[in-house]
Amino acid sequence: MAITRYFGFAPETEFGVAAAAPVHTMDPESAEMDPSGDNALIYEGMSGIDRIQKPAPYMSEGSISCLVDDKIFPWFFKLLLGGYKKTGTETGPFTHQFFPHTKSLMDSFTAFVGKDVFEHVFPGMVVSSIELEMDRGFLTASVEFLGGKDEKGALRAPVFNEGNVFANHEVTATLAGADGSAVVDGFTLTIENNADNEAGITIGSRFPRRAYRGALSVELGLNLSFFDTSNLERFWGTATGPTTGPALSEHPFVLNIGDNMSITIPRSVYNELTQPVGGRDRIEQEATIRGLAEVDPSTGEITGPVEISVTNDKDGYGEEAS
Length: 322
Known about the structure:
Elements: E1 5-11, E2 24-26, E3 30-36, E4 40-43, E5 52-55, E6 59-67, H1 74-81, E7 82-88, E8 94-100, E9 109-115, E10 119-134, E11 139-147, E12 151-153, E13 171-175, E14 178-179, E15 184-192, E16 217-225, H2 230-236, E17 251-257, E18 261-274, E19 284-291, E20 294-295, E21 302-303, E22 307-312
Antiparallel strand pairs: 1-2, 1-9, 3-6, 4-5, 6-11, 7-8, 8-22, 9-10, 10-11, 10-12, 10-15, 13-14, 13-17, 15-16, 16-19, 17-18, 18-19, 18-22, 20-21
């Protein structure tokens, strides 16, 4: 038996109808995808003896841990957020913009996982969250999925086709309009859409027929060097202590990844901030920032709480959705 492990995926034209083959194939650090929940409905009568069973509603879930690249990974931004626009000339390069969409149903895809002895196929998968992390190494991600039924397939010979990946020195941060890279030791960005596929199970089917989009949340955790009180003052909203005014101070935040990717939180507030003194060790600040949507007062147009831009030579990430 040879080691044959890979993660592939392909967008679906109809929810839960499996794509024939992966469009992209990745070599993640891990791909943990399996059926979830109880497979059987067991009737528990007062006799105390389990006798009657039926197949239970059937769902799957899982995640991958991988590097963030500028070619394949943007698909997950599209599947998570829903909104997408492309600009550029006919021959490229193209700039792809990903942003929150208000449509109620999630776009789905089929996942293909090589597991040494068979290919595990998962139709009707949706992206429920993405967590990006930078800690003096590669820019990595954990992507969470929800799905329905699973199938057995034949193993393929994988051809990995990721794009450029990013290391610590290729990422910078703009905080409150100024370069804050020199004090950001690392970060974790978590984007969740609270997708719900269990609600998509109806009579006449054991499997979800659809997945609903939930409330979007964007949270940025920062590990910060401690040289002054500037971040504390942003947390307080004043220079000397907690504000007693009607609102907290708000700040934009931008992550620049390489020279062709950016993640913008146009409006945010500091939700938590600590500077624990751990004996003789250096003092490190830990901040939690919550992204907020921004409304144009003249047009009513909503942007944020997160906007992602990627420029590459790829001609698209499915249909545009504004």
